[in-house]
Structures are given as C-alpha cells and as structure tokens.
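Saturday, quiet lab. Running sequence design on the structure tokens for the scaffold JK sent over.
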C-alpha cells in the first residue's frame, strides 16, 4: 500500500526538509508515500551540479539540493511528485525505479495524445527533441526521496537562463503546447499517481 499526500503549493526548502526527515525517521513498517505538489518559482542544483549551467544572473532563488542530476526549474503549473519509496523492501534497483517513473510518465502523456520517449543516458521524458519531464532521486538506506516534475502549463521562459539538466541548447516543452485536451493539474496528479502505484504494485506480483 502507498499513501498519497496532496500538498498544494509549497516552498522547496520546506518540502526538502520534510522529505529528509520522513526518510530518516521511517522504519521497515512505514508505508511508502507519494507527495503531489507544485513549487514556488525556484532553480535547484543536483549533487553534481556545475555553476556553469546557470547562464545568467537571476532574482529567482537557487537551491543546492541533494538529489541526483544538474540544474532544473520548478514553478506553479508544473506537477511535482516526490517518491518516498523503500526500494530495498520492494527488491528494486535505482535504475529500475527510474525506468518505472519514466514509463509512467510516457503512459500518462499517451492518454493526452502526446507521444513521448526516453533518451539513453539522459534521464527524463522527451517529446521529439524537447524535454517535458525531469527526474532526480536520492537514495538513502535503500529508500528514495525527491522524484519527478512534469511541465503542464507554466511560464517556461526561466529555462532560457540555464542549461536544463546540464544540456546546452536543450529545448523544454509542456503539455499545454502539445495537446488540445483540457488540462486540469488535479486530474493529472491523480492519473499519474495511479500509473506510479500500478507500476510499483506489479513488482510485488
């Protein structure tokens, strides 16, 4: 069983501290959780993040995080799902977990008539040559935190200030640019959560 927590619009630093605390204090009986939310406008750098990938000075806060990957951007209109999963208990490796998240995103996008794919060696989900979803996890004691971000209907202009995820000239897109379907972030939150829960459940069969 996985517990779903809908947390609304959240400050990045506050949520990061909550994730770390949850992961530190959980035990072998603690239920896994998915946290769905949006963040106030913020750039986050991954553990291996290089300052050169921030191309211009900005008033937008920059947080040095402990997730994997390089720099990315979060803002309202982008769905965040944090995956607080005991993958050791599930018998999963981190690569399999990443693959399951990517596949869940591809299935969700397909239901909105958006054909998406992965790129070898570049975690995340892409439409043609543009990135639509990013992911970065932290593994501690066999348990993950951090997770995925899916661009739904947001201001993409701050992406021009960075090399997204460390790739120069990488284009970024969002669902609202690619489909005529009505986009309700609350619906997408539930649908994507279900895809993730189904994928994790299959590992137990």
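Result came back. Writing it out in full:
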């Amino acid at each position: 069983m996985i517990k779903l927590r809908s947390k609304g619009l959240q400050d990045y630093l506050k949520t990061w501290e909550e994730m770390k605390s949850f992961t530190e204090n959980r035990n072998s009986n603690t239920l896994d959780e998915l946290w769905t939310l949006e963040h106030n406008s913020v750039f986050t750098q991954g553990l291996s993040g290089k300052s050169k990938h921030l191309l211009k000075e900005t008033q937008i806060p920059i947080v040095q995080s402990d997730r994997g990957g390089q720099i990315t951007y979060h803002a309202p209109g982008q769905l965040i799902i944090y995956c607080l999963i005991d993958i050791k208990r599930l018998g999963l490796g981190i690569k399999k977990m990443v693959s399951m998240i990517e596949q869940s995103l591809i299935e969700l996008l397909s239901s909105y008539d958006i054909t998406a794919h992965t790129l070898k060696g570049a975690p995340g989900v892409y439409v043609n040559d543009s990135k639509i979803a990013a992911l970065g996890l932290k593994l501690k004691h066999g348990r993950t935190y951090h997770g995925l971000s899916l661009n739904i209907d947001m201001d993409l202009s701050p992406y021009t200030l960075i090399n997204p995820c460390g790739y120069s000239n990488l284009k970024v897109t969002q669902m609202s640019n690619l489909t005529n379907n009505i986009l309700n972030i609350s619906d997408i939150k539930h649908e994507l959560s279900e895809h993730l829960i189904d994928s994790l459940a299959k590992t137990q069969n």
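Notes for JK: The chain has one domain: 2-202. The longest helix spans residues 185-202. Ask whether to fix the surface positions before the next round.
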